[in-house]
Amino acid sequence: MQLDISDQSLLTYEALASSVRLHIIRLLSEKKMNNKELAKELNLSSAIVTMHINKLEEAHLIRTERVGQQKISSLKVDTIEISFPEKIFHAFDTYETSIPVGLYTNYQVKPTCGLATETHRIGIFDEPKYFMAPERMNAKILWFTEGFVEYQITNFLQAEDTLEMLEISFEISSEFPFANNEWPSDITFTLNDIELGTWTSPGDFYDARGKLTPDWWEDHLNQYGLLKTIRITHHGTNVDSNILSDVTIADIKSEMDTWKLKIEVKEDADNMGGCTLFGREFGNHDQDIKVKMYYR
Question: What are the E-state strand segments in 100-256?
C-alpha cells in the first residue's frame, strides 16, 4: 500500500493510531484468526474487537470473510510506503519533461506482457508484437516478465548550461500473472548505455484499487506501483534515499541532443519478477515518466 500526506490517507493513519489495532495486525501477520480468538488473545470483549476489526477493514489493511458462523480476518497489506512532497532544490534552474509510458523507441519483451489505455487493452495480452502497434503511444500501463523498454529523452540543456543533478521518476512495480503483493523483481536502469544500478521491486500490488485505475480494470489485476525517483548527483546515484551506484553526474554525456533510458529485467536476474510501468490515469500517481534536469 502506498500513502501520501493528503486527507485521503487519513483513514489509514487513524486505523494505525491504536496499540490494540497494531497488536491485531501483529497477530494476523502470523495466521488468520476469528473474532473469538482475537478477543481471547487481547483479553477484550468480542464487541470491542469487532469495532477495531471494522476500523482496520475500512482502511483496507485487513480483509474479513464469513466461514459458517465465524468471521475470519487476515492481513491484506504487507508493506506501507509513504510519499512526501517532492523536495525542491532552489539553488538550481530546471528543465522538466514528461514521457508517456507508451512512447518507447525500442523494446524487447517476453510474456506475460501487454499494454492498455485508460479505456481498453491494446491488442492481445501476452503477444509481444503489439508492443509495436501505433496505439502504444496512448498506453497508460505496460508490463512484461523479461526484457526491456527504452525511451529517448530530449536534452534541453544549452551550451552555456552546466548539469548539476538529474532526476527521473516513475510509478513502477513487478509483474505477476494477475497480481501478487509478494513478488520481488530486480529491475535495472541504464542511461546512455551506462548502468545506473538495479532496484528490487517488492511486488505487483492489488491489496487496494489504484486511486486512478479505471473502473473497467478488474480487481484481481495489478492496481498500482511505487513512485520511485532516481537521482544522479556529483556524489553518486540514489533511488529515493538508497544508494544505487557510484555513477555520478560527470559520467552523463550532457552534450548529447537525446539521452537513452532503458528499464530492464535481465534474463540472468536473481529475481526475475517482471516490470509494470504506470502512466497518467492509472495507478496512484497522475504522472508519466518525469525527467528533471537541474543546471547552473
Answer: 106-116, 141-154, 163-173, 185-191, 194-201, 226-233, 236-239, 242-245
Fold of 86-295: Jelly Rolls (2.60.120)
Q: Which of 156, 134, 133, 169 is nearest to 263 (CA)?
A: 169
CATH class of segment(s) 2-75: mainly alpha
Contacts (Cβ under 8 Å, ≥6 apart) of 78: 181, 182, 203, 207
Q: How confident is the model at residue 169 (pLDDT cuts 50, 70, 90)?
A: very high
**Domain coordinates of the chain in residue numbers?**
2-75, 86-295
The enclosing H or E element of 22 equals helix 19-28
- Asked if 277 and 225 count as a contact pair (C-beta separation under 8 A), the reply is yes
Give the predicted TM-score (pTM) of the model: 0.81
Cis peptide bond prior to 258, omega within 30° of 0: no
Instruction: Render pLDDT for 178-236 as a digit per residue (tens, 0 to 9).
Output: 999 999 999 999 999 999 999 999 999 998 899 999 999 999 999 999 999 999 999 99
219 in Cβ contact with 239 (< 8 Å): no
